[in-house]
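Hello again, I could really use a second opinion on something today. I've been puzzling over a protein and I'd love to understand its fold better. I'm sending you its amino acid sequence along with the backbone structure tokens. It would help a lot if you went through both lines with me. I've dropped the whole record in just underneath, so have a look.
***
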Amino acid sequence: MISCSLDGYVNDQDGSIGWTAPSEDRHAFINRRVRDTQVFVMGRRMYEMLRVWDDWPPGRAVEDEFAALWAQADKIVCSDTLGGIDAPRTTLEPRLTTQRLDRIVAGTDGVVEVSGPTTAAGALRAGKVDEIDLFVLPRVTGGGQPALPGEMQATLELAESRTFSDGAVYLSYRRPAS
């Protein structure tokens, strides 16, 4: 699950992602979508953005719910630039290979979410991702990091779509049944 601009970028030309913060109704939807997630696999930048949930101070119900869901899941951070991680239920690996992803998926009864465009690129190119969930936001950045990797080819079917109060559109695509 990833947010991107209308022109397909996860950050703007300066690397900023502040414009991706979800509205309350979008956040509640995200909570429902990640309820069955057992393992979050992500890159360094995604982890740096999401690690605030490790010590989230109670306040708003929708955020408190996500913090609880985050705390219950295992996290695997794929980075060869981080020296170490000191966070609950979180491990560090140099990079995500398709073989390692196969082992992660085989070792869990729930959903494995791979997020972050760099970390997910190999899995997407190899056809290891069953579902691509995008929140397309009403913003054009004119550049940045693409949400999907180049040289990826896939035929997908629209599984779900929805709009939110902040103008975002959720699109869920799945590989067709064989």
About this structure: The mean pLDDT is 93. Strands lie at 2-5, 37-43, 74-78, 90-93, 111-115, 131-137, 157-163, 169-174.
